Amino acid sequence: MLIHPQFDPVAFSIGPVSVRWYGIMYLVGFAAFYLLARLRCREEWRGLKVSDLEDLLFYGILGVVIGGRLGFCFFYQPGFYIHHLERVFAIWEGGMSVHGGMLGVAAAIAYFSVTHHKSFMKTADFVIPLAPVGLFFGRIGNFINGELWGRVTSPDFPFAMAFPQSGDMLPRHPSQLYECGLEGVLLFTLTWLYSRKPRPQGAPTGVFLLGYGVCRFLVEYVREPDWFLGIRALGFTRGQWLTMPLILLGLALLLHGYLGRRPRGAS
User: Fold this and answer.
1) Has residue 255 been placed in a domain?
2) 110-149 CB burial, b ≥16 within 10 A, e <16
3) Spatial separation of the C-alpha atoms in residues 162 and 235, rounded to whole Å
4) 266 belongs to a structural domain
5) Alpha carbon 16 to chain centroid distance?
C-alpha cells in the first residue's frame, strides 16, 4: 500500500503572503490554454484570431473562478451559504466545483461572443478541447493537497493509497489521479484529435460534455462522497446527479450536429 507524500500545500512565501500549489496549478492550466489556443488560431476556419485570445482568456478565468466558487456554495452546501452569504467569496477557505466552473465558462463564452460578434457555438467548439488541460492541473492540485481522496479499497489493490489527511490510514483509491487520467489526459486526447478537422457545429462540445460526464460518473463510484452529503437519492452521489445533465446535453448536441438539417459548419 502506498502512502500519500503529504506535500506542503504552500509552494513558497513572500513575507506574509503564501503562494499555494493549488493556485499555481490553476495558473499553469490557464497558461497551457493560451499556448494551445494560439496553435488553433493558425487555422482560419476556427473563426478566432490570436488578438481575440486575451479577452477570451480573461473572461474565462473569471468564469472558472466565480462559477466554480458559486457552484460549490450552492450546489453542495446551499443551506449553509444562503445563511452566510459573506462567506461565499472566502475562496481561501477552499471549495470549488467543476460543474459550476463549466457554467461560468459558458457564461464567459456567451459574453465574449456577444461583445466580439462571434458565434457562441463556434467559440465553444474552439474552447472546449482545451478544457481538459485545466481539469488535469486542477486534479493535480487536489492530489498535492491530499483532498478529495477515494473510497476504501483492499490493501492489495495495486494503486491503494493511505491519506493521513483523511484521519485514518485505510487503503483508498487515489481518485484524484484517476480523474487526471480520464478527465485530463484521455479527454484531452479524444477532443483534440476529434476537433482537428471541421465537424458539425456543436459536435466537439458534445463530445466533451458526454466524455466528461461519463468519466466523472464512473469515478464517483470510487471517490469518497463529501462528508456533508454522503450518498444521495437512488444511490448516486451529488456529483453523479450534477453530471447527468451534461451527458444528456452532450448527446443532444451530437445528435443535432449529425442528424439535424443544418449543414456542416467548421468547428
Assistant:
1) yes
2) eebbeeeebeebbbbbbbbbbbbbbbbbbbbbbbbbbebb
3) 25
4) no
5) 30
DSSP string, 18-38: EEEHHHHHHHHHHHHHHHHHH
Question: Bridge partners of 178?
Answer: none
Considering its fold, how many domains does the chain have in total?
1
Which alpha helices (H) appear in 4-130, and where do they start and end?
21-41, 50-71, 78-82, 98-115, 120-127
In angstroms, the CA 219 to CA 194 distance is 23
181: in domain: yes
The domain of 145 spans 11-259
Dist. CA 213–CA 248, nearest whole Å: 9
Residue 122 domain-assigned (yes or no)? yes
Q: Report pLDDT digits (tens) over 8-62.
A: 999 999 988 889 999 999 999 999 999 999 999 999 999 999 999 999 999 999 9
- The binding site consists of 139
pLDDT in tens, 95-129: 788 999 999 999 999 999 999 999 999 999 999 99
Pick from 144, 145, 112, 139: nearest CA to 219: 139
* Residue 161, CA distances (Å) to 3, 131, 146, 171, 176 in order: 5, 28, 11, 5, 11
Nearest in space to 174 (alpha carbons), one of 147, 156, 211, 198: 147
Helix (H, G, I), strand (E, B), or coil: what is residue 161?
Answer: strand
